[in-house]
């Protein structure tokens, strides 16, 4: 309770100040709408927010799962082969530095306008890199003591990977996944700004803004925020379930 | 070894004979042929009898850890042979003829205490029920039966080191190899674990090679203290220790202090 209360109080206070600032300062709604106006829009649009959040959430989830699976396989391969490992890290770092979201318009043109595939592809690519890089680092960081011990047990390479490398790399995998889960939502939402199928939060935000319905646009932004938070929290929950030995440290 | 072996072959004691470890004319050179070539060990001979407790002591860089790793077959000698339990060291390692513990406990943090102790048994293909029973017995031996379900992160350093010793003992090896296992512990914990270790070795009849840089630890634990010196690493003295008893009284005995002085002088020489 004592850990939850301060941030909640701070949030309420910040919203109150925001409201005061907008009403007392006569700030135009197209510059910054008041929280009360946004709240009213959230209530009015809640069905639309829910539906578009589901669509964006589905895209983010598909990309997250696909990108993660691919990243795990790639990291396993790269950790086993010296050559792949040496080649892949600088390569991944360079590709990671590209604004991958900028691929969205190109991908949109490659598929039909009714297809969800381009948004999911962008999300998958965005997810791939943090998971791949973190997991690969984890797979390579095996403590020398563990290495020597497994040698004294005459353990094979595969046994070593399964019993030591993989469980040892789990914390790194989840570090990557925590970054990736938020990025997945951002990518799924923002990819819609560049065309393609328009049934998600991103499309709602752009169209509301185009109609100068700023409180409504903010209402959908709030929806995107909640969606991102949901993804992040679910990842944290999975992390706790997957690594019971860390429970004391995370909680 | 068959009778047909040529006469110049070094006689290897039979399994169950009198020698647990035979290190014969071993030299170890690291980075051979490179400018940073180091002779870590030069012409080392060492025999550890069955049930004998031998400590290796010496300044850092004297090759005591290298010698231990050679016995464990974690590295290979440049020249000479290492025989463990009557077999070449590599074969002995594959047969898990020894248990090993390092200065770091090196527990697997994602496994509970019990499953850490079970790991070497698991890799041997022992059945689930058997290894569970064995691990619980080993944990009892080190006084941690109540912590079987804990994770290593929940234990103190001394408790973790005890788990590591239980794990080293799990396969019930005839030989225990230890590289400064109590080095990172405080004096009180260290003394308690020393007594525990002696009790375990006595009841199980395990031989031990124990690397340390503490003179008092070496004297208290060992039947024989092997003193080494550096550059190049070699054995300079081998001191038999016969304490009247290995307990608090033993730590007060005149023989204990005499041996400490003897080892100290050997280290200075």
From TrEMBL, chain A:
SUPFAM superfamilies: MetI-like (SSF161098). The chain crosses the membrane at residues 60-79, 91-111, 117-136, 180-197, 217-238. GO terms for biological process: transmembrane transport. It is found in: Cell membrane. InterPro entries: MetI-like, MetI-like_sf. GO terms for cellular component: plasma membrane. It is a multi-pass membrane protein. Keywords: Cell membrane, Membrane, Transmembrane, Transmembrane helix, Transport. It comes from the Bacteria. Pfam families: BPD_transp_1. Residues 49-238 form the ABC transmembrane type-1 domain. Belongs to the binding-protein-dependent transport system permease family. PANTHER family: ABC TRANSPORTER PERMEASE PROTEIN MJ0413-RELATED, ALKANE SULFONATE ABC TRANSPORTER-RELATED, MEMBRANE SUBUNIT. This is NitT/TauT family transport system permease protein. It comes from Actinoplanes xinjiangensis.
Automatic annotation (TrEMBL), chain B:
Residues 21-255 form the ABC transporter domain. InterPro entries: AAA+_ATPase, ABC_transporter-like_ATP-bd, ABC_transporter-like_CS, ABC_transporter_ATP-bind, P-loop_NTPase. It holds the Pfam family ABC_tran. One of its GO terms (molecular function) is ATP binding. The lineage of its organism: Bacteria, Bacillati, Actinomycetota, Actinomycetes, Micromonosporales. This is NitT/TauT family transport system ATP-binding protein. CDD domains: ABC_NrtD_SsuB_transporters. Keywords: ATP-binding, Nucleotide-binding, Transport. SMART domains: AAA (SM00382). It comes from Actinoplanes xinjiangensis.
